[in-house]
Amino acid sequence: MLGSTARKLRILGFDTVYDPKSEDGELIRMAAASDRILLTSDTELYFRAKKARTGAILVHGTNEDDRLFQILSKSGVRQIQVHGLISLCSLCNGRLVSTGAKNQNGVEVYSCLSCGRKYWRGSHWKKMAILFNSVNSKLAETSRQNHAG
Question: Mean pLDDT for the chain?
Answer without folding.
Answer: 92
